[in-house]
């Protein structure tokens, strides 16, 4: 084991868990989760194997975009708790070996932010040029709208200001002008503040928009926008050597690779693999891993200490924007055929279990992939128990319903009157009576038990996170197999995308003399033939992880 691998580059083999404080656990009975609630439930996360907790925005907010519209970058929304509660949570998490990161949403502020209020009130305001203004919107004002159901333009006229301002997202979220040195400095101050309070880094919201100087009148004369990301990273590393930046970059691979920076990786430490995620859904729809394989073959390697973030669901719509129209339609047909399940013409406002008809084998397959694909797995709260969405809740919030702890009223999330919950609980087949933590903790065959086991094995196999991976050829078109090698260790993972059993032969060693394949998830060992070929039977939607060892290698668990 190399020195760097031990703990410094901790994100490289982390288990990241994203939650919204508002919907996790309510301790004061007001119908809204709070920071104390997350603290009370920290051992659920520790037991699950989480090593990095990602808190969605907890800052003061008018809550028109679920907290992504912020009025004070240094504050904690009083409905969720206090700075004191946050420090307690970070301390408790650290005691369990867990780091805490938070959303850094500095592409824009809320229009209620005092900076914007001051900026719009007068051209003389010191905050006027913290935002991007124009007398006339540019001709391409309607290009690149993120929320096409609500917005028609990226530019909004403001009566009070007498000018148009830029907003990449909702019109109540004016974009900050990051070409302004004062804004850049303020963002660094914000980062410095939260690092002091104990955060270990940030999930950076909307990175390509953040660094894009578009809209700024002298954009053409500006230096490379990546210089700014490099500056941010350098500042972060000076302040805290162990801090990471996990970026939201949904672009084609080549462009996303640029956000890791040069060979030494001087920009983002991690970036979500949006392309791999979308291709995975296409593969699932087709019961054929070819599209996933194509994505992995195309995916550039990150710099040595950087990492891709693997995910199957997040808090937003399941975006399929990088698929062709026909491919997207295939995924819609398979996993979200009704119009109400679809959003913005590009995504699905659903969680995974309802998309897969709650088929336990198929769900286990997907989570086995999440943990064994090269990258760092990122879970969204509720995935560990197979929660469903509530389509009665508007827009993307359908997947942000309260965590289901028990079969009791409100899923044990809150003692409030159900009508007073900030977000209603899911009902029916995926409601708390059927899907909850308490029942699954006691059931060795539950999804929760499966995910705990995957997390543990993943942490035990540095090959999966640090290793070099090779996609293995097999004769079965429904099987995806890959091998990961690191410092003499070798792990092979095999996944069957079809509802039929499969038999595969895989070349896992030069020759098979003294070679063993130890199953890491189930009982039993698989046979490696004398020619180094592994013979394996897979159940429908089956998955296997095997450690390949030579006679004389140390005892394998
Ligand atoms: C990101 C977030 C999304 C939010 C948007 C605007 O895309 O993931 O939830 O609405 O940024 O901040």
> What's the end-to-end separation, in Å?
18 Å
Overall pLDDT level: 95
Principal-axis shape equals globular
The main β sheet shows up as: 8 strands, parallel, barrel
Give the radius of gyration.
24 Å
Task: Give a list of the ligands.
Answer: alpha-D-glucopyranose
Level-1 CATH class name of one domain: Mainly Beta
Low-confidence stretches: none
CATH architecture of one domain: Sandwich
CATH topology of one domain: Immunoglobulin-like
Instruction: Give the beta-strand count.
Output: 22
Q: Strand sequence of the main sheet, in spatial order?
A: 1-2-3-7-8-9-10-14
How many distinct helices? 17
Structural class estimated from helices and strands: alpha/beta
In terms of DSSP E residues, the strand content is 15-25%
Would you kindly provide a written description of the structure presented here, covering whatever features stand out?
The mean pLDDT is 95. The protein is an alpha/beta fold and 557 residues long. An 8-stranded parallel barrel has the order 1-2-3-7-8-9-10-14, surrounded by 4 helices. It has helices at residues 3-6, 35-40, 42-48, 83-95, 114-121, 181-197, 207-211, 225-239, 253-258, 274-286, 290-298, 325-335, 352-355, 360-372, 437-441, 447-460, 462-466, and strands at residues 16-19, 52-55, 99-104, 133-134, 155-158, 163-166, 201-204, 244-247, 270-272, 307-310, 318-319, 342-343, 347-348, 376-380, 468-472, 479-486, 489-496, 502-507, 515-519, 525-528, 533-538, 543-550. It has 17 helices and 22 strands. Bound molecules: alpha-D-glucopyranose (GLC).
